[in-house]
Write a structure and sequence with these properties.
Elements lengths: L7 E12 L38 H13 L3 E2 L2 E2 L2 E4 L9 E4 L6 E9 L5 E13 L3 E5 L2 E5 L6 E7 L6 H17 L12 E11 L9 E6 L2 H20 L7 E6 L4 E7 L9 E2 L6 E2 L2 H11 L3 H12 L3 H7 L3 H14 L5 H23 L1 H11 L6 H8 L5 H4 L3 H12 L5 H16 L6 H7 L8 H14 L1 H8 L5 H12 L6 H16 L3
Parallel strand pairs: 12-13
Antiparallel strand pairs: 1-10, 1-11, 2-6, 3-16, 4-5, 4-15, 6-7, 7-10, 8-9, 11-12, 13-14
This protein binds adenosine-5'-diphosphate, magnesium ion and zinc ion.
Adenosine-5'-diphosphate binds next to strand 1, strand 10 and strand 11.
């Protein structure tokens, strides 16, 4: 990383907030969903009406503990909830229920990739559970309060100041997000704020062991902006020090339009929040059995899986990445590899999943949810995120065994392509029919679908021979040109032959036989 003076180095620590994918809020039974009519998802508890009492959401605890185990934190069998007091219009209680002393987990680490095949260990101070605040919406001279988000569950993950560049900070965020999305703890959506980060940053002369005074940049909502905001802030601090000034500890906001950080308020200290133990909630006590059960449910994490796919199956980095983005997809791939049991090249199975299966799912999702596609497109317009990516993030159900009833059908389809019974396009049509069948509760073998849709390839030499003869006869002019050296016309004849068979001819055979004929013509036979 190049700064304006490279005798300085950066020290960065991140506080990540992630919403937990529970059905209901942290301390009440209101739905935990995004994008509903303002103040439609509220009750006495999340509105802080007098006399209402919070109840801990077990599922939120499970997800937080799962996240904590995945990033190597120690789980504390006894933890406490605490009130963090401050006034803000989006916080009806006047305090946020959080954890302060005795969080649910502490002392972990994450290994991040720092390029060139190197890894770095980033220590994690703690992960604790808390509730989110509501939202303020500013419109002209008016401000509105929407409390749908008030009381939704969050995990806050606090790193030690072990990150030494904006790129490392981005790598840490990405690895963390990958794990949380994969384990279905978070939807990882930075633009909607369900995965967000505050970045703490200071600079010091290289070789110094003392930490410099830090500033905190609040709520940066994309990977790109994290890097930009940090880079700007590092240079700002270096410049300030070089000019004889001192960094003031304060809270900043990143302005994505100017690319600069702006002062928001002076830094508050823990004592400003007058933390005290939440009197309305008992301590959170976790049993060994509860923790063990969650440990057992985690299985192989995406990074390990990715490496295994690359090592064992010689998949490319990109393919391995796509396959391990979602747990269900990785699981389907693993199961298909088992069913395959060495019959065909695993790369082919990977390709069918990455290209055709994912595409089929996207199409299906888009047809089933037209309003949602529009809504999301509008929401993301200013960020110019391709619609493809949005849909990708929205797809909730990837489970092959639900979508086509049995992943064995998927394997049968690939086998029929491999055996030459149908071509690739036929395979696509079979896949589509499998999805339709499952929707309509219709059970049909892949062979039956091939027969019904008349997809079998014309592979017999005689059949293809006849078609090619016909095509050559019907296009005398082009044939002469081809013999005369216009090689491009070869493709034209292949195309004509495919057309005649409605795309069902085995293209390899067509090429072979056509080639033989042309060679014969050329040598005057
Ligand atoms: P607070 O809760 O007041 O924000 P913490 O001590 O919990 O303060 O630290 C918050 C984050 O700031 C942590 O991620 C930590 O690693 C980071 N941090 C602390 N000191 C520094 C520093 N001098 N430079 C950069 N980051 C720091
Ligand atoms: Mg902080
Ligand atoms: Zn509620």
């Amino acid at each position: 990383m190049e700064y304006i003076d490279n005798s300085f180095e950066a020290v960065i620590g991140l506080e990540v907030h992630t919403q937990l994918l529970t059905h209901t809020k942290m301390f009440c039974s209101c739905p935990n969903v995004f994008g509903k009519e303002p103040n439609s998802l509220v009750c006495p508890v999340c509105l802080a009406l007098p006399g209402s009492l919070p109840v801990i959401n077990l599922n939120a605890v499970e997800l937080a503990v799962k996240a904590a185990i995945a990033i190597n934190l120690n789980i504390n069998k006894k933890s406490l909830f605490a009130r963090k007091n401050y006034f803000y219009p989006d916080l009806p209680k006047g305090y946020q229920i959080s954890q302060f002393q005795d969080p649910v987990s502490s002392n972990g680490y994450l290994m991040i990739d720092i390029g060139g095949g190197m890894e770095k260990k980033i220590r994690i101070n703690r992960l604790h559970i808390e509730e989110d605040a509501g939202k303020l919406i500013h419109a002209g001279l008016n401000s509105f309060v929407d409390l749908n988000r008030a009381g939704t569950p969050l995990a806050e993950i606090v790193s030690e100041p072990d990150l030494s560049s904006p790129a490392e900070a981005a790598a840490y965020l990405k690895d963390l997000r990958d794990i949380l999305v994969y384990l279905e703890i978070s939807d990882g959506n930075m633009e909607e704020g369900s995965f967000r980060c505050d970045a703490n940053i200071s600079v010091r002369k290289k070789g110094d062991t003392n930490l410099g005074t830090r500033t905190e940049v609040k709520n940066v909502n994309s990977f790109k902006f994290v890097e930009k905001a940090l880079e700007y802030e590092i240079n700002r601090q270096i410049e300030l020090i070089l000019g004889g000034g001192k960094v003031v500890q304060e809270t900043l906001l990143f302005n994505s339009k100017t690319g600069k950080t702006e002062s928001m308020r002076g830094k508050e200290e823990a004592h400003d929040y007058r933390y005290f133990e939440e009197p309305d909630l008992p301590p959170l006590i976790l049993t060994d059995g509860f923790i063990q059960k969650i440990k057992d449910s985690i299985g192989e994490l995406p990074k390990a899986k990715r490496q295994r796919y690359i090592n064992d199956f010689a998949l490319s980095e990109y393919d391995a990445e796509v396959l391990t983005q979602y747990k269900d997809v990785a699981n389907d791939f693993d199961e298909l590899v088992k069913i395959n049991n060495g019959t065909i090249d695993i790369k082919k199975i990977a390709n069918w999943i990455i290209n055709e299966w994912m595409l089929e799912l996207k199409k299906r999702w888009a047809t089933d949810n037209p309003e949602h596609v529009q809504e999301r497109a509008a929401l993301h317009e200013e960020n110019s995120i391709p619609i493809e990516k949005i849909i990708n993030e929205d797809l909730i159900n990837f489970k092959m065994n639900e979508i086509i009833k049995d992943r064995k059908y998927f394997f049968d389809m690939i086998m029929q392509v491999e055996n030459g019974k149908i071509n690739r396009n036929g395979g696509r049509l079979v896949l589509h029919q499998l999805v339709e069948n499952a929707k309509n509760r219709k059970v049909q073998s892949v062979e039956k679908i091939i027969n019904d849709l008349n997809l079998a390839q014309v592979s017999d030499d005689k059949g293809i021979e006849d078609i090619i003869r016909q095509v050559l006869e019907e296009n005398q002019k082009e044939l002469e040109d081809l013999i005369g050296g216009k090689d491009k016309l070869f493709g034209f004849f292949v195309g004509e032959a495919m057309k005649k068979t409605k795309g069902k001819a085995n293209p390899k055979k067509v090429n072979e036989i056509l080639n033989k004929h042309i060679e014969n013509y050329k040598s005057g036979i």
